What we know:
heterodimer, A: alpha+beta, two-stranded antiparallel sheet, 13 helices, 12 strands, 56% helix, 19% strand, B: alpha/beta, 7 helices, 29% strand, globular
Amino acid sequence: xxxxxxxxxxxxxxxxxxxxxxxxxxxxxxxxxxxxxxxxxxxxxxxxxxxxxxxxxxxxxxxxxxxxxxxxxxxxxxxxxxxxxxxxxxxxxxxxxxxxxxxxxxxxxxxxxxxxxxxxxxxxxxxxxxxxxxxxxxxxxxxxxxxxxxxxxxxxxxxxxxxxxxxxxxxxxxxxxxxxxxxxxxxxxxxxxxxxxxxxxxxxxxxxxxxxxxxxxxxxxxxxxxxxxxxxxxxxxxxxxxxxxxxxxxxxxxxxxxxxxxxxxxxxxxxxxxxxxxxxxxxxxxxxxxxxxxxxxxxxxxxxxxxxxxxxxxxxxxxxxxxxxxxxxxxxxxxxxxxxxxxxxxxxxxxxxxxxxxxxxxxxxxxxxxxxxxxxxxxxxxxxxxxxxxxxxxxxxxxxxxxxx
Amino acid sequence: xxxxxxxxxxxxxxxxxxxxxxxxxxxxxxxxxxxxxxxxxxxxxxxxxxxxxxxxxxxxxxxxxxxxxxxxxxxxxxxxxxxxxxxxxxxxxxxxxxxxxxxxxxxxxxxxxxxxxxxxxxxxxxxxxxxxxxxxxxxxxxxxxxxxxxxxxxxxxxxxxxxxxxxxxxxxxxxxxxxxxxxxxxxxxxxxxxxxxxxxxxxxxxxxxxxxxxxxxxxxxxxxxx
Lengths: 405, 226
């Protein structure tokens, strides 16, 4: 029989017993829907954290002290077109926490936030945009001026929607003038960046910070290095390490650590991928159960239709004709279940966004590769679990099959 | 032409061997209409199964239109059933979910013949059911169902038509119509027809009668119908 006619005949047969077909494919429907919805949560978590890491920049190196200390001069030494041609921009920073207060006609408001001492390069390296006013400038850094740039949320909390630029705030008891407000970074999984206050790195060290080195140099907590081309990450890492080892006169263990955002991202993706696959394979077990359901019903169907098989053989059906007809019926059942399951899974994933995850930053992601995989697997299950009943049908002897009541 | 030479068929039931056919010699020429009679257990069903290539002989030789059937594979046997043989059964054996037209079309589909729907309708026309093509078996009388079965047997233009008690489930009027239809087909198209029957008046339409007993042909006579 031609493939089209076999398909038509199988469709007819599946359609002629609607309730039974529906119940049979329910197992596959539930399995596929579980795979799609569970994996959509996994993918959602993955995307949300990945986007956060990418916001930090995958072409950024982070240098932090490890046993020694890093200074502002170390940072400036990395800006060297000869020894470090891959390095584009360098941004040292000093991190601390502090109390920020404002007093106005509505009373005093206080905020406990992260205070970051930065240089002008910090804006480019961390990709910040200024919504209002200006960023920390070079004169601010050289003069250790008492100026501050507010994160968007901090600005709202302190000034309740009024323009903060030109206003005065107090940080750890020292009066500072607000020169700018940053655009919201939003979206990211952790919104703390909008809640910070930036001041000149020299101000942070000399006016706010507690410890100073004897030589009068400024020690910093982290140096972020922007690499011009993401393909040069490893080279840049080598250049940075060489310069710092020379400056620190190191022959054995480094007293600093260079971290690569790309590596962190890859490590994270490996972990979540395993997590997503784990969720998927748990759901996949229900697909196997669904497959056994199909096999069961196909065996019943072969027995019920013994006479039909006998008639078909008598008028000239070969083994292959009977085999392909029954396998196709099983595949249609499982594929039908797969398609309904995908739709149901998408519905569940959407439903979770407005219920379970409504308050979260995570959104479920139904990706095409998982959808294709689920459909492929459900088809394969029909094939695997349909082949045995079909072989039994094909092997029936025509005379015995015709005699069957 | 059908040629059976010393054909035996033995069934094994546990330890016991049952000889369903014990050395049958039979030649049926093209265009003959033969009635096979005999008590149940006489071996006439086994003979029909072997003639219809649904089963193969234990020993002996069976050749159909010069092709030796003895050691053919399953799929070759299926192809021969498809092209050379048409079956008509006592209980019609139509597929209940399919319309008359689709039932008749079935052998053509397995033969992968083009224009099968048209050929199926033509075959239904030949048995007088041109206006019933869209009906399902459950919507037809026994006589009509048997006509559909005859159309299905004819549609692929086989050389033999095997009818196993074709009127066994029918009332006498329908029986007469069916046997007259078979006779007409035999005379008009020259198709070889072999009918197994219990009924004397049905056998009376055939020009040759074979009587079987205990797996052997005990009587083979030509009756002049002209």
